[in-house]
Amino acid sequence: MNLVEVHFEEADKTVFVEPGTTILAAAEMAGVEIMTGCTRGMCGTDAHRVSTESGDLSSVLEPAEDHEQGTLDRMGVGSDCRLLCSAKVRAGKVSVAGDALTD
Ligand code: FES
Q: Which of 9, 23, 72, 74 is the most buried (most CB within 10 A)?
């Protein structure tokens, strides 16, 4: 199985995880502290901008499930934002920037 590379820009830490791992779980493995609330994709506390070199996020992340997408829509954040507790990695390399609302 090919591991997925997850890079946390602010902490400058990188971890390799199995596909299907949430970015929040990857952060815990990397020792990166993320502020969370519900951890169920409902509160939006952990919304962060994510990116990948190709620019095609669908190649590196699973699509947002309904509850996550509903929360992102309510927050009015851009399509490059995901909730780290809910966003699951798929393949390749994902970069996670700072908080979606303050950066
Ligand atoms: S911690 Fe509440 S949406 Fe992720």
A: 23
| Residue 13 vs residues 5, 6, 30, 71, 77: alpha-carbon distances, Å | 10, 8, 7, 27, 25
User: Closest ligand 1 atom to the C-alpha of 37?
Assistant: 1
> Quick one: pLDDT band at residue 12, thresholds 50, 70, 90?
very high
The ligand 1 atom at the shortest distance from the C-alpha of residue 68 is 3
Q: Does CATH place domain 4-99 in 3.10.20.30? A: yes
Buried b (16+ CB within 10 A) or exposed e, 29-58: ebebebeeeeeebbebbbbbbbbbeeeebe
Tell me if the pTM is above 0.90.
yes
Quote the ligand 1 centre to 83 CA distance (angstroms). Answer: 6
Q: Decide if pLDDT at 102 tops 70.
A: no
* Residue ranges covered by each domain of the chain: 4-99
Q: Is the CB of residue 59 less than 8 Å from the CB of residue 91?
A: yes
